[in-house]
Amino acid sequence: MKILCCNARSSLILFLFPPLTAHCADKCVHGRCIAPNTCQCEPGWGGPNCSSACDSDHWGPHCSSRCQCKNGALCNPITGACHCASGFKGWRCEEHCGQGTYGNDCHQKCQCQNGATCDHVTGECTCPPGYTGAFCEDLCPPGKHGPQCEERCPCQNGGVCHHVTGECACPPGWMGMVCGQPCPEGRYGKNCSQECQCHNGGTCDSATGQCYCSPGYTGERCQDECPVGTYGVQCAETCKCMNRGKCYHISGACLCEPGYTGEHCETRLCPEGIYGLKCDKKCPCHMPNTWSCHPMSGECSCKPGWSGLYCNETCSPGFYGKSCQQICSCQNGADCDSVTGKCTCAPGFKGAACGTPCLPGTYGVNCSSVCNCKNEAICSPVDGSCACKAGWHGVDCSVNCPSGTWGLGCNLTCQCLNGGACSALDGTCTCAPGWRGEKCELPCQDGTYGMDCAERCDCSHADGCHPTTGYCRCLPGWSGIHCDSVCAEGQWGPNCSLSCYCKNGASCSPDDGICECAPGYRGTTCQRICPSGRFGKNCIGICTCTNNGTCNPIDRSCQCYPGWIGSDCSQPCPPSHWGPNCIHTCNCHNGAYCSAYDGECKCTPGWTGLYCTQSK
Ligand SMILES: *[C@@H]1O[C@H](CO)[C@@H](O)[C@H](O)[C@H]1NC(C)=O
Ligand SMILES: *[C@@H]1O[C@H](CO)[C@@H](O)[C@H](O)[C@H]1NC(C)=O
Ligand SMILES: *[C@@H]1O[C@H](CO)[C@@H](O)[C@H](O)[C@H]1NC(C)=O
Ligand SMILES: *[C@@H]1O[C@H](CO)[C@@H](O)[C@H](O)[C@H]1NC(C)=O
Ligand SMILES: *[C@@H]1O[C@H](CO)[C@@H](O)[C@H](O)[C@H]1NC(C)=O
Ligand SMILES: *[C@@H]1O[C@H](CO)[C@@H](O)[C@H](O)[C@H]1NC(C)=O
Ligand SMILES: *[C@@H]1O[C@H](CO)[C@@H](O)[C@H](O)[C@H]1NC(C)=O
């Protein structure tokens, strides 16, 4: 089999335009047959039938090109492009990653600090002298310095060494290369650069500069002598000199007044009670009250509670103590003990100087009594008496104001009328039901009743209702709780309490009792019948009965006069009848005329007799 490979141009042409008749006995695995038994391989493949992949050092069609990649980079078998190993870059991976980057494709950012270098492959930090830590972010630990923090620090006495150079920075009070030397006398502070300021032999703290004074002196720079009455180291000792002897501020030694001697000037040069240069004069002091008599001048100084030239006078008010020289601190009228100055408080106050009023609820001497006031009354801290609030009285304010009074001391009179109750506190009125107004002087308005006139009357035919109870006041002729029932028949007037007096079946008006007469009657009590010829209600009908017929006033019916008949009596009796309602039959004979009135026979001539039956 022939391999067609070497001229790239001709192989490309053959690859693109293969002869139509080409035939390869072996199949071209990764390529095509371009001439009899000749395969054209795809890039990355080689071998007679294009079945072998390129090795790592070759690329391209038939693996005929040599890879150019450096530093262990792999080359693409098809294109020959280099795939760099971690930490490298460039066309042929010939360069390290740029500063500050590392890793695959140099994509990672270095994290090293303080000028450390960074490994281009792993990113590992290599620290400069003086630093440590994964990213060189830490100074060397105390006591170490230099490259890899491996060198030992030489500084003493708390000196701190520089993390790079190892140079010592000394604490205040020390100096020298390794801080081994204390400050020289008179200097202090950092580098011993400050000058001490202590006077009168005081020494200075080499670190802080603070002064330690020598005995007898005080102050920040030992510039002051001890205060009068004290001496020694830090002026902590108390002078013991008596009788106005002066005390030396350094040693405490006493310098006595004339007339006295002894270590503490405690000894009088003259015997007790005597004074003068030659101890020949008698003290003028009143001895029981005298503290001392001056051995030279004979001047008296008195015991507590006494004063005056001769110590025979008591203290003025407000003073106490030796020769009454001290001023009492007692306040609020307290007594002051002229000897001790102790205060005895007035009732209502307490405390050492009696400056504190008793707490609320307590009173009296020492504030030791408990108040007994009731109902928020104010209790006097002095004597516990109660000042009652409005509405209360009594010693302990436990009693309500008596009925009808109110206010402070129950001194005001209630003004509430009509049974209204008054507030003991402010005198306001609470009205009884049915009343209103500031003083309950007004009754409820029409139509209302009850407490605060808040209820509405519920009445139908009434003159309002009772302001207290709400009972309806019915108009005459009405009854019932709501005045909605007319009086029963025969009753009338207020409460339907009157009986009708009408006669002859008349009814009466429920409101005024006036009679309404039945037809045929008249008069105020309907006691009279209608006048003749009249009939009906109020007798206003006019009767129509004729021929002396009498009329029934009730139903206008006619009672005919004998001889007449008909509803209005206008018809005479029929022939041969007579009498009322023509009920009788005539008995007249022989042509006699029969009276329709009474049936009397009027005989024709020739006849006589009652019935004209006898001939004359
Ligand atoms: C390609 O050729 C090799 C020897 O060069 C042979 O072993 C292999 O079987 C062949 N592959 C095909 C598919 O013919
Ligand atoms: C101490 O002395 C050193 C060297 O003389 C100097 O560098 C430093 O500034 C001084 N420090 C102070 C607080 O004076
Ligand atoms: C105090 O004593 C002096 C001298 O003995 C005397 O004159 C004076 O009256 C006395 N005063 C009183 C208050 O006793
Ligand atoms: C007041 O208190 C003082 C000191 O506690 C005490 O001596 C005194 O007896 C008390 N007085 C009364 C009246 O309780
Ligand atoms: C009450 O009246 C009396 C006598 O008029 C008077 O002494 C007292 O101070 C009054 N009280 C008040 C609290 O007004
Ligand atoms: C009506 O009746 C009531 C209650 O029975 C009574 O208080 C009132 O006086 C009566 N009125 C009259 C006008 O009799
Ligand atoms: C009516 O009565 C009177 C006397 O009673 C009598 O004189 C008169 O004639 C009577 N009239 C009639 C129409 O009967």
Structure explained in plain terms:
The chain is mainly beta and 616 residues long. Among the domains are: 6-83, no CATH class; 378-497, no CATH class; 517-572, Tie2 ligand-binding domain fold; 576-616, Laminin (Ribbon). 1% of the residues lie in helices and 28% in strands. The chain is built from 1 helix and 82 strands. Strands 1-2 form a two-stranded antiparallel ribbon. A two-stranded antiparallel sheet has the order 3-4. Strands 5-6 form a two-stranded antiparallel sheet. Strand 25 (203-204) and strand 26 form a beta hairpin. The chain is flat, with a radius of gyration of 76 Å. It starts with 7 loop residues before the first helix and ends with a strand. The model is unreliable at 1-14 (pLDDT under 50).
Please sum up the structure shown.
With 616 residues, the chain is mostly beta strands. It is 1% helix and 28% strand.
Task: Label this structure with key terms.
Tie2 ligand-binding domain fold, 616 residues, membrane, signal, 1 helix, 82 strands, repeat, mainly beta, EGF-like domain
